[in-house]
Design brief:
Layout (H helix, E strand, L loop, with lengths): L1 H9 L2 H5 L2 H8 L11 E3 L4 E2 L4 E2 L3 E3 L4 E2 L4 E4 L15 E3 L4 E2 L4 E3 L14 E3 L4 E2 L4 E2 L4 E2 L4 E2 L4 E2 L4 E2 L4 E2 L4 E2 L4 E2 L4 E2 L4 E2 L8 E2 L6
Length: 203
């Protein structure tokens, strides 16, 4: 158990180990990953117990990370070896990642510019419960993804984008500044800035 090893390594003694909160975590086999030398978690960004960090990963300052969040796990790609690190994941500052958000690290495939860029999350974004960001995606600043929103790999979301609940963005799509995709809607083509995609129910 990583938490048990962490408690022992820090030599905090029996007092901390017998604390009710720590004891419940140990007894329930809770998982918390201590950042490795390839991972940087900056000031005032504290992943909750039961969150999972993996691969090359950089997390900026002031991020709020709720239980069940998984960051930097291997991309869902049949061509990617899950045991390779790849370019990793970079997360900016002051993001709020609610329960069970998942963001995958990038593949080794080169970008059109010849670079191996990480999956990148900007600043001041709000990702609600169960939203997903696929590998090699670039998410701008001040974006909101409501519960269950899905973003495929290699997509680009510019600043101030809003995805409603269970909205879906196809891989390789680009969503312009200030655009919105309403709940349960899906797009498979680029969306111009400040446009809105909606689903309309007819009686």
């Amino acid at each position: 158990n990583p938490l048990r090893r962490w408690v022992g390594r820090r030599r905090v003694g029996r007092i901390l180990q017998n604390h009710p909160v720590v004891r419940r975590a140990l007894d329930s086999q809770a998982r918390i990953r201590i950042p490795s030398r390839h991972q940087t978690v900056r000031h005032r960004s504290l992943p909750e117990i039961l969150s999972r960090l993996q691969g090359p990963l950089e997390i900026g300052e002031g991020n709020l990370i709720w239980p069940g969040v998984t960051l930097g796990l291997a991309p869902q790609s049949a061509r990617f070896d899950p045991f390779e690190d790849g370019p990793g994941l970079v997360i900016g500052h002051r993001n709020r990642l609610r329960e069970h958000v998942s963001i995958h690290r990038a593949t080794n495939w080169e970008s059109p510019e010849g670079r191996n860029d990480p999956t990148r999350i900007g600043d001041d974004n709000y990702l609600m419960v169960n939203s997903h960001i696929g590998h090699d995606t670039v998410l701008g600043n001040h974006c909101t993804l409501a519960n269950g929103a899905l973003v495929g790999g290699h997509a680009v979301l510019e600043d101030h984008v809003l995805l409603g609940g269970n909205a879906a963005v196809h891989q390789f799509c680009r969503i312009g500044h200030g655009a919105m995709v309403s709940g349960c809607a899906a797009i498979s083509l680029d969306l111009m800035p400040h446009f809105t995609v909606t689903l309309i129910n007819y009686a």
